[in-house]
Design goal:
This protein has helices at about 45-55, 65-80, 95-105, 120-130, 150-160, 180-195, 250-260, 270-280, 285-305, 335-345, 370-385, and strands at about 30-35, 90-95, 115, 135, 140-145, 145-150, 165-170, 195-200, 225-230, 240-245, 310-315, 320-325, 345, 350, 360-365. By secondary structure, it is of the alpha/beta class. A hairpin with a 6-residue loop joins strand 11 (about 310-315) and strand 12 (about 320-325).
């Protein structure tokens, strides 16, 4: 069937974090929320029907995954990403960030150093600091409207700080890089040389734009923990399901022990049902969404250039998030945030949220109806021009 992504259902008043908590999060009540990586498009009918069938059973006791659950996951990653995983290598968790946190507790001790690459997803910072580990930063290099890795500094940080664990973001949130095989291989060689385990957040793996190909770090190294989820692909974060792939049996044993230490066992039954159904039947829906989001990017690029030529779009290679450079206005980050929030009445994610060492950046969610993106640019135009 053909899906309509222009007219999603209304979510206000449903307890949606995106819409119903502006005031609690310190934003104006009328600010248009484009801050969180959450879109409003309904799930494909096949999955809704599968969940309704589960409701009709009228029993929600302890539930576990059947073999078909693992088959759906392994088929999806083999078919779409040429990534072969065995069922025994999959460990379920209720979310990617818990999966990353489990790697911290499995492979490091208090005081150990963990490396990240800002600007990067804020929970990386929070997990490391809250676990009493040493946060070490290898800042991505911003040149010519693109981000790259400073490999010399990457290795120096590992050696100088005796880094034990590296948090990779692949594809990268917020800068939109889809790391190449050459880049990933270079990272692997450095990490292997110094005994660093890699925990790779690959939640955005299904979102790449034409000309770019996602390669899982797990296809290049067994010394790794690959944390994935259908929650960004299909927007089911509220169902709390993610899957961690660990090929190395010893690492898998240590990781499972950390999960046990959290007192965690089965994930939500609706997470199980949705994950299996979406990976099994959601390919057509997702293909149509990808086409729509490509159109969004093309529209956003041209309309932004027309209305706000001083704002640079960091051309995304993957994800549905756009990283915007407002530095031509010469504003401190706090003043930029104030204009965006209080004058344009938009709720975006500011650059400081991601540990950016360069002021003047904002992240906006491109997985929105096109009319909403147009409204957002119009609001920015009115505020800045």
């Amino acid at each position: 069937m053909t899906y309509n992504f222009d007219n999603p259902p209304e979510r206000r008043g449903t307890g949606a974090l995106k819409y119903d908590f502006n005031l609690e999060r310190g934003r104006p009540a009328d600010a248009l929320p484009l801050w969180i990586a959450d879109f409003d498009f309904p799930l494909p009918n096949e999955t809704l029907e599968a969940m309704h069938r589960r409701v009709d059973l009228a029993n929600f006791g302890y539930s576990e995954s059947m073999p078909s659950y693992y088959e759906a996951i392994t088929d999806w990653f083999k078919t779409r990403h040429n990534y072969e995983i065995a069922a025994k290598e999959i460990i379920k968790t209720p979310g990617v960030m818990l999966g990353m946190a489990a790697a911290v507790h499995a492979f490091t001790e208090r005081g150990d150093a963990i490396l990240i690459q800002p600007p990067v997803y804020r929970p990386f910072f929070e997990i490391i600091r809250s676990s009493d580990r040493l946060l070490v930063e290898n800042h991505l290099v911003y040149e010519n409207n693109r981000y790259t890795i400073n490999f010399e500094d990457f290795e120096r940080q590992i050696v100088d700080n005796k880094v034990k664990l590296f948090f990779l973001c692949n594809p990268h949130n917020p800068v939109g890089r889809v790391w190449t095989i050459a880049e990933l291989t270079n990272l692997r060689d450095i990490c292997d040389r110094h005994g660093v385990i890699v925990a790779s957040d690959e939640i955005h793996c299904d979102y790449t734009y034409p000309g770019f190909t996602y390669t899982s770090y797990g296809t290049l190294s067994d010394n790794a923990v690959i944390v994935t989820a259908p929650s960004k692909t299909f927007n089911i974060a509220g169902l709390q399901v993610s899957n961690t792939f660990i090929r190395n049996a010893q690492l898998r044993k240590r990781y499972k022990k950390a999960i046990d230490g959290f007192g965690y066992s089965q994930i939500s039954v609706f997470g199980l049902v949705a994950c299996e159904s979406l990976y099994r039947t959601g390919a057509d829906w997702f293909s149509q969404l990808q086409s729509y989001l490509l159109g969004n990017l093309e529209f956003f690029r041209s309309y932004l250039a027309e209305k706000l030529p001083k704002v640079k779009l960091i051309e995304p290679e993957g994800t549905f998030l756009y990283w915007l450079d407002f530095s031509a206005y010469g504003l401190p980050q706090k003043e930029l945030d104030s204009i965006v929030t209080n004058k344009a009445k938009l709720w975006l994610e500011d650059g400081d949220h991601f540990g950016s060492n360069i002021p003047g950046f904002e992240r906006i969610n491109g997985a929105s109806p096109r009319s909403v993106l147009k409204t957002a640019i119009d609001k920015l135009h009115a505020a800045f021009e």
